[in-house]
Specification:
Number of strands of chain A: 14
CATH class of the largest domain in chain A: Alpha Beta
Radius of gyration of chain A: 19 Å
Distance between the termini of chain A: 16 Å
Order of helices and strands of chain A: EEEEEEHHEHEHEEEEEE
InterPro entries (chains A, B, C, D): Bact_transglu_N_2, Papain-like_cys_pep_sf, Transglutaminase-like
Protein name (chains A, B, C, D): Transglutaminase-like superfamily protein
CATH architecture of the largest domain in chain A: Roll
Pfam family, one (chains A, B, C, D): Transglut_core
Number of helices of chain A: 4
Organism (chains A, B, C, D): Pseudobythopirellula maris
Largest sheet of chain A: 6 strands, antiparallel
Oligomer: homotetramer
Helix content of chain A: 10-25%
Shape of chain A: globular
Strand content of chain A: 35-45%
Chain lengths: 279, 279, 279, 279
């Protein structure tokens, strides 16, 4: 059990009446309790919280007239991750998958698993089924991509990244998700706060459905998975953008802070590739 | 109120143990009552019905050993469409959209609304908001695409189609969906049986969310919307393929029959572009 | 007849032994005489001039060890453009095209005329053949694209730009070239120095083959065509990049200056869409 | 030295006046002498032979009114390939490449070496330079692609194929060409007749520039390189399509026959991966 304090500030120059959907609030579950939370705007505008999509992501919605808009969000979160150290986790037979998991086998905007299926099968189809196979995918992605901010954009897809071999966290996760789906393992994208991520920012990682649970993986290895605070999940980053705008507004500043909030010094994290069942 | 009889037969040569997900059963709702339904396989295999995804599509699942598999499905359906003849249907302000509708603004695998947003806004952004604007999109798609089987494949996207200007029903629907999302109108893909579709096959059309309801459109104009029997909806065709396979099986035959089942001769259908609120 | 002075300085941090191909020297022809020219490097390295490709572009080649490399190029050029003010220029029948022009009907890396042929034919196929039709293409590109630095990269193609509706001079030229080829008009990319281009940089424009000659067009309308000094032509920008590197070197600085060098004040340029036969 | 007889028949239904460019005539060089050649059309139409492009490909051009057009081409060819059995062939330093070879380092329509450069460098950048490295690329392509007619179309590119891992001879050659360019080895596409190709058709292979010469490779291994009769070379298949049409004509029939024409029975061919310097 550990506590983490997250904070983010977003400043927009709103030039025309704009509808904002913010996806920055932490998820609330048995494994992730929110002890305190503040969502404020300046100028004050009505903020509506709502749950969206199959995943029930918690969004904050606001309709804002032209102004300089400042959003401050903070939360104190207590995590009780279920750490499964055995790594003896198998795959669920596709015929036994819970129906609600099936859509995560479908290709999505940034994870074209239909295009990459043959590649995925060729590279990973013969490996022993289970946690280790998904870890092999995460490792392959880590080994074959270069982490280079600026090489990709908001429209870059898994197929693009597989070819160009460079990207950022979002691209790493997209490629891993597409490869998992390509071999028949349901996979989804997870937006998170992450302690010790450098430079501090929102993080993009992924989950695979194994043996009845969603397991968390980070193909970038940039931060310890024990320090992740979940924001939301989706088929890919399109579903969990930190802000979706309809109107005209320019992002002027974005700061993200994620730190351990325990009194006692935090113990060394276990190796980053350890299995964590999250739901 | 009208009755429609649908039938489909699928024959597969199953070469290796294969998991099938069939998406051929008709949807059941207040507007579409299923009076009779039969789903049989030969050889007999256990068939599990399940509801999948945010849309609750009803799928049939089977795990099949190597054999020649024949699937027969039939249903007698009674439709009571809500025909809104006024066409005075406006758009719901994005700030007022029900949360569960918001994901249908996101780009998806075959509807890259992020790529086409500027084009959509340029072509349709200035038109009066409402039903007529979505109809203008459907008309544009009909005017600018050539219906040519063989010009596209299962991986063809809205962006591909916008460039190459040819495709089939699925492509028409994808492009229309992407353009709607591009101007901020939630849109989704609908798989359906369709009376009088030539040649008989599953049909792909689309729905746009207007004024609190989903409205049905067919950019192909190939069959009367009054004769559509809904199978399922999704972000795009990836979510409602008539069959999704995991294993090795070759489709040998597919027949689809959709006919009016009323005793009395069916009256002339109203014009195909009439507004039909469907949910 | 007019004189133009061009200058460019390129500074590289060469980190590993690198082969450079510079494509910055002005073309020499009956219409464009080079009165003075200097190509120097610091540190001094052997520079080899060579003529490359079907177009005979004049390249400068150097193999450079790690260092800070500074390239200075300047030329004084006298232009005697053949201005055809009548605009009564027709198209050459495809069956009459000189053989050496035929490759400019083929699709190339950044000008996928095969993908855009149906679109091109639909938009421009019925217009009267000739100079005005190519001008209509240039106008369409100008009307439908937004000039926005940063929206495209070195791998952006005409098809990308047609969808996203934004780009820079290179993208404008690529799209126009692809559309010309799509309706059967040979077209090629031209790299040039351009007086009054803001901000000063290398410019990318295009030429179409009409009535036995190559005619110059600038879809961006950012600078007067009378002030263009030709560097080289190719199928697309891939053939006339200002520098092609093999090795590891980082561009630190690039400055380009292009000014009228006449004693007398320069007269007002004629409208930018005037026909100029250039070869 | 060996003799090969090639024949091809093309039958078109010409629906509107159409300009044809046929690229079916054999190349003539010191290594490939044409002893006899017939090019006939029925109905008789004027056929103009011309040499096109940087490669000087020999095309036959005809302008045809609506009719059923039959083209018969045959040639008896004597080959004296320069077989270099040592395989001790190095690479030419990029700084020493003849200028006319440099364009074959540029990306082209179907060989996006710019997109694949990082992949190529990662996979092949560290191998010993020379013939064996290009052979390693050809082998990799052969190992990782499945030869499956119907999986690709005329607009499929090397990047598409690298993702989807299936294609035909043209796709194999495109991918190999792109990978060679990606590591700095000039490469081009070669259209050829090929003895023993099953089913008989035009063949697509590639050449790499090594140690001052173009060397021939066939990534498909579908026919012995000793039995290839060269038609033409280009940056990719766009430059050497067997027929390029402008107008409306439907290909009704295409037959290609390529057989040994020696009196004595032909000896067993040497292994297909033997180095053959061809120009």
């Amino acid at each position: 059990m550990s506590k983490i304090q997250v904070r983010t500030t977003l400043i927009y120059e709103v030039r025309q009446p704009t509808n904002f959907l913010f996806n920055i609030g932490v998820e609330q579950s048995d494994y992730q309790r929110c002890l305190e939370e503040h969502f404020t705007s300046n100028p004050e505008v009505p903020i509506e919280a709502c749950n969206v999509g199959a995943e029930g992501n918690r969004l904050h919605r606001a309709f804002v007239q032209p102004c300089e808009l400042r959003i401050d969000y903070s939360a104190l979160v207590e995590l009780t991750p279920e750490v499964d150290t055995s790594c003896e986790v198998g795959e669920t037979d596709i015929s036994q998958l819970p129906p609600q998991v099936l859509p995560y086998l479908n290709p999505s905007r940034y994870c074209e698993s239909d295009l990459l299926a043959r590649f995925a099968f060729e590279e990973f189809g013969q490996l022993p089924r289970g946690y280790q196979r998904v870890q092999a995918i995460a490792d392959w992605v880590n080994d074959h991509l270069d982490y280079e901010p600026g090489t990709t954009s908001g429209t870059t897809t898994a197929a693009d990244v597989l070819l160009q071999r460079a990207g950022v966290c979002r691209d790493y996760a997209h490629l891993a998700v597409a490869l998992c789906r390509g071999i028949g393992v349901p996979a989804r994208y997870l937006a998170a706060y992450a302690v010790d991520l450098q430079p501090p920012d929102f993080h993009g990682v992924f989950e695979a459905f194994l043996d009845g649970h969603w397991y968390l993986f980070d193909a970038t290895r940039l931060a310890p998975v024990q320090g992740f605070v979940r924001i939301g999940t989706g088929r890919d980053a399109a579903d969990v953008a930190f802000a979706t705008l309809n109107g005209v507004a320019i992002l002027q500043e974005k700061t993200v802070t994620t730190v351990w909030a325990d009194d006692a010094p935090h113990q060394d994290p276990p190796p980053a590739d350890e299995a964590i069942a999250t739901a």
